[in-house]
């Protein structure tokens, strides 16, 4: 998941260049999604820890 936002990822930067999308525009679009995914992951980890999974 983090490869979508890491600026050193060659694939991400190449696709952004082909689509003529700046890195700043990409971050504005992907950041809310990434924050939601991280929050859901933390909740899932917390619940798993509480129930002893």
Automatic annotation (TrEMBL):
Pfam families (UniProt xref): DcuC
Keyword annotations from UniProtKB, A to Z: Cell membrane, Membrane, Transmembrane, Transmembrane helix
Membrane topology, record value: Multi-pass membrane protein
Record InterPro entries: C4_dicarb_anaerob_car-like
Residues passing through the membrane, by range: 29-51
Compartment(s): Cell membrane
Domain of life: Bacteria
Protein name per UniProt: Arginine/ornithine antiporter ArcD
Organism of origin: Vibrio variabilis
């Amino acid at each position: 998941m983090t490869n979508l936002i890491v600026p050193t990822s060659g694939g991400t930067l190449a696709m952004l260049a082909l689509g003529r999308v700046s890195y700043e525009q990409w971050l504005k679009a992907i950041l809310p999604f990434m924050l939601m995914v991280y929050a859901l992951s933390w909740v899932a980890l917390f619940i798993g820890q509480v129930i002893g999974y």
